[in-house]
Write a structure and sequence with these properties.
With 128 residues, the protein is α+β, with helices and mostly antiparallel strands. It has one domain: Histidine kinase-like ATPase, C-terminal domain (Heat Shock Protein 90), CATH 3.30.565.10. It has four helices and seven strands; from the N terminus they run βααββαββαββ. The strands form two sheets. The chain has a five-stranded mixed sheet with strand order 2-4-5-7-6, covered by helices on one side. It has a two-stranded antiparallel sheet with strand order 1-3. The radius of gyration is 14 Å and the shape is globular.
């Protein structure tokens, strides 16, 4: 059953279990999150956010910037990172698999995912 989800809180909570791995990789998070609510399944959305951030972590050195801002009738979650040119094929495969799963979860919630080297963008409808 769908419930009201505070997306900025969900992003912060989804990052918590990734912090030890981020520290080990030398990855720092730079957060710029506005507060938004939407209707959805918190567990699934959390899984999607974790997969997206883990994909960025595996393909970068340094900072991962995560921003959450309005975009018309939607909310835009943008993950920017400096793409590593020497990323191992296994890291790229794992990132692509994680992004594919996240994309399916977002589609269930009326959203979509777009990615390119150094950028992952999510658009989700804001709770009306």
């Amino acid at each position: 059953m769908a419930a009201t989800v505070d997306l900025s809180k969900l992003v912060n909570e989804a990052l918590a279990p990734l912090l030890p791995a981020a520290d080990a990789l030398g990855v720092k998070f730079d957060l710029d999150l506005d507060s938004f609510s939407l209707s959805g399944k918190s567990l699934l959305l959390s899984m999607a956010v974790k997969r997206i951030v883990a994909a960025a972590m595996g393909l970068t050195r340094g900072a991962v910037k995560i921003s959450l801002h309005p975009n018309g009738t939607k909310v835009r979650l943008l993950v920017n990172y400096e793409a590593r040119p020497d990323a191992a094929p296994e890291s790229i495969q794992e990132a692509n698999t994680g992004l594919a799963l996240a994309s399916e979860i977002l589609a269930i919630h009326g959203g979509n995912l777009d990615s390119a080297a150094g950028r992952i963008e999510i658009l989700l409808p804001v709770k009306g």
